[in-house]
Amino acid sequence: MKSAITHRRGIPFFYKKTALEFQQDVYERYDEMVVRQSALHLADELWASYPFQPIFDFAEKYYPVETLQQVETLQCSVSSKTEINILEIGCSIGRWIATLAKRYPTSTCWGIDYSYQMLKRANEYWIEGKEISIDLTNKGLPKQTIKGETLNNLKFGLAKAENLPFDDNSQDLILNSFLIDRLENPMQGLQEMYRILKPNGKLIVITPLNFNNAAHWKIYYPPIQLSNILKGIGFEILDWKDDIIVNEPLDFHKNMVHWKCLGFVVKKV
Ligand SMILES: C[S@@+](CC[C@H](N)C(=O)[O-])C[C@H]1O[C@@H](n2cnc3c(N)ncnc32)[C@H](O)[C@@H]1O
């Protein structure tokens, strides 16, 4: 893995983000983005259930087989340990990768994002075990205070999906949700994911295909085009579903954004 260029509050930076890039990045806006992502991903009680659960339900069939990992862990005493490396790209507050870190306590898990503010919150909550408060009273919701956890197999770092700091053939499972339609160069991001996956490693991509760029609509839409791009990079398609519905709540009245997501599970061959 590449060395970090610098650290801020314990978070390694693998990309030198300039003051202008900080200023222009909407995901660095604390009140609008970090508070909202924290509420969506950490405060399930606000919504009665976790709004992104449909993504987990689709993806979990493709997680590493637990019994196999237990066997590998047991074998550690007599042979070398088979390490499972799991990475989420565009992890924001880190809920998905933290779920995997808890499920596979002997794995090494990384959450990578381009927003320092998101990573700071993720680090405080999942690694430092801090208590955080979420104030969405401007949306009619009650204030929440929630206590974090202290996961010791999880790390967070700042990097761009298009230039990942991991070695070739190093990851067993890569996850991302609501990311690829936000990238300046989705193709480069997908090629990077291919480069760092181990042979037979899996990539799970969840995207609402909500591109903000006319050229990207032409290249990656409809889903068959994205499928062909993934095959062209060298992936084998294991599964896909084009109606993973995520209802993102907006306020106490339960106004919602209805996301129709496409999910791909692909394997590096
Ligand atoms: C729409 S949010 C999705 C967050 C989370 N994955 C989810 O499903 O709610 C997009 C996230 O991707 C991150 N992001 C945007 N561009 C990125 C890039 N080039 N590389 C890595 N992360 C990026 C943002 O900072 C933000 O946290």
* Spatial arrangement of strands, main beta sheet: 7-4-3-8-9-11-10
Mean pLDDT: 94
- Following the backbone from N to C, one meets helices and strands in this order, namely EEHHHHEHEHEEEEHEHHEE
Identify the CATH homologous superfamily: Vaccinia Virus protein VP39
Number of helix segments? 9
Ends distance: 22 Å
CATH architecture assignment name: 3-Layer(aba) Sandwich
CATH class equals Alpha Beta
Sheet with the most strands, sense and barrel status: 7 strands, mixed
Segments where pLDDT lies below 50 for 5+ residues? Answer: 74-80
Textual characterization of the structure:
The chain has 269 residues and is of the alpha/beta class. The protein has a single domain (6-268), classed as Vaccinia Virus protein VP39 (Rossmann fold). It is built from nine helices and eleven strands. It has a seven-stranded mixed sheet, sandwiched between helices. A two-stranded antiparallel ribbon has the order 1-2. The protein has a two-stranded antiparallel sheet with strand order 5-6. Helix 5 (95-103) links the parallel strand 3 and strand 4 (108-113).
